[in-house]
Write a structure and sequence with these properties.
Layout: H1 5-24, H2 29-40, H3 45-51, H4 58-98, H5 116-129, E1 134-135, E2 141-143, H6 144-147, E3 179-181, H7 187-195, E4 200-209, E5 221-231, H8 236-251, E6 257-262, E7 267-276, E8 285-286, E9 289-290, E10 299-308, H9 310-315, E11 324-330, H10 332-340, H11 353-356
Parallel strand pairs: 1-4
Antiparallel strand pairs: 2-3, 4-5, 5-11, 6-7, 7-10, 8-9, 10-11
Helix pairs in contact: 1-3, 1-4, 2-4, 5-8, 5-10
Bound molecules: adenosine-5'-[phenylalaninyl-phosphate].
Adenosine-5'-[phenylalaninyl-phosphate] binds near residues 301, 302, 304 and 329.
Length: about 350
């Protein structure tokens, strides 16, 4: 029985509607490819129908051929559209999963800055450099020899109690503890003088460590800036003039400064210098309650100082009959508290970016 064009056109219609029905439910690129092979492939359903074209009587072929081409083009176009849909759907899904909002402005890059203590140490050193001092640094792991002995603090000296020392597990030939974390920057006094002939004028910023309980103005590790000036004819007036000028530059002219006698074995005479408390404005109390920052003193001590002890000078080979000098050790952590109005020293070391970002 030979095929008629009406039959062939009906077959084409059947393949078309079946193909379009199936295409509707497909959501992956793999299933679309399977669909293509099934309907449009070399052994596919459409091709099979087309092969029967040749068996039509010649006068019917033209109409049937046109219909076959139309069907083929339609299925190819629908496949293309379905492929685009699947691809766009995949991107939309990805965007949803990754929550990409391409319209959002980019995140600004965060710009780093110096820690407030680094800033204050640099500012303080700059003040001394402008007065003729040179900046040097020294080791944080130190010998007992420089931290104590060369500063006129022998091992049996009660002044060792002033410095609650963190010792390193290391003993000398006689079995004594001899290595420590420096308790102050003063060991750089002897280290500098051993290497240099007078005149000497240096400042030494750095970290120091003490086995100490912490509170609003005490940390167990903090910073100091040591100062040392040795020459012929240096007097206490030079010491006071230098430190007043430093205070004026860092705090401004209106801040009150107080000198008092203090004791350090490596100076004679010795003093400490305080600045009026920024919280209670020197009163010792705020609204009738005791001031916790200065512990009711009205003053905050920022440095120890004095005229270099003759024994310290002679131990490094300087003649104390010819040379005199002054030395000081300032706590920049306390200076930063006073300057910026910070009520607790521990904030500097707590690594809170909300705090650090304010400087
Ligand atoms: C000394 O360390 C002496 N080396 C200073 C000195 C140098 C005197 C040269 C004479 C000549 P003192 O322990 O007082 O001294 O400390 C000096 C400064 O360090 C204090 O005034 C204070 O500002 C700071 N400081 C001391 N202990 C702490 C601490 N626990 N936390 C924060 N700052 C401190």
């Amino acid at each position: 029985m030979s095929m008629t064009s009406a039959q062939l056109i009906e077959d084409l219609g059947g393949v078309q509607s079946e193909a379009l029905d199936e295409l509707q439910g497909l959501t992956s690129e793999e299933s679309l490819e399977e669909w293509r092979v099934k309907f449009l492939g070399r052994r596919g359903r459409l091709t099979t129908v087309l092969r029967t074209l040749g068996s039509l009587p010649p006068e019917d072929r033209r109409a049937a051929g046109q219909e076959a081409n139309r069907t083929k083009t339609l299925l190819e176009e629908e496949l293309g559209a379905a492929r685009r849909r699947v691809r766009e759907g995949r991107f939309a899904l990805l965007a949803e999963q990754e929550q990409i909002d391409v319209t959002r402005p980019g995140r600004p890059a965060t710009v780093g800055r110096y820690h407030p203590l680094t800033q204050i140490i640099r500012e303080m050193c700059d003040a001394f450099v402008s007065m003729g001092f040179q900046v040097i640094e020294g080791p944080e792991v130190e010998w007992d020899h420089y931290n104590f002995e060369m500063l006129n603090i022998p091992s049996d000296h009660p002044a060792r109690d002033m410095f609650n020392t963190l010792w390193i597990d290391h003993k000398d030939a006689e079995g004594r503890q001899s290595m420590l974390l420096r308790t102050h920057t003063s060991p750089m006094q002897a280290r500098t003088m051993e290497k240099t002939d007078p005149p000497v004028r240096v400042v030494v910023p750095g970290k120091v460590y003490r086995y100490e309980a912490t509170d609003a103005t005490h940390e167990w590790h903090f910073h100091q800036i040591e100062g040392l000036a040795v020459d012929k004819g240096i007097t206490m007036a030079h010491l006071k003039g230098t430190l007043y000028e430093f205070a004026r530059r860092v705090f401004g002219p209106e801040r009150k400064v107080r000198f008092r006698c203090d004791y350090f074995p490596f100076v004679e005479p010795g003093v400490d210098m305080s600045i009026d408390c920024f919280v209670c404005e020197g009163q010792g109390s705020v609204n009738g309650s005791p001031c916790t920052v200065c512990r009711e003193a009205g003053w905050i001590e920022i440095l120890g100082a004095g005229m270099v002890h003759p024994k310290v000078l002679s131990d490094v080979g300087y003649d104390p009959a010819i040379y005199t000098g002054f030395a000081f050790g300032i706590g920049p952590d306390r200076v930063a508290m006073l300057k910026y109005g910070i009520e607790d020293i521990r904030l500097f070391y707590s690594n809170d970016l909300r705090f650090l970002g304010q400087f």
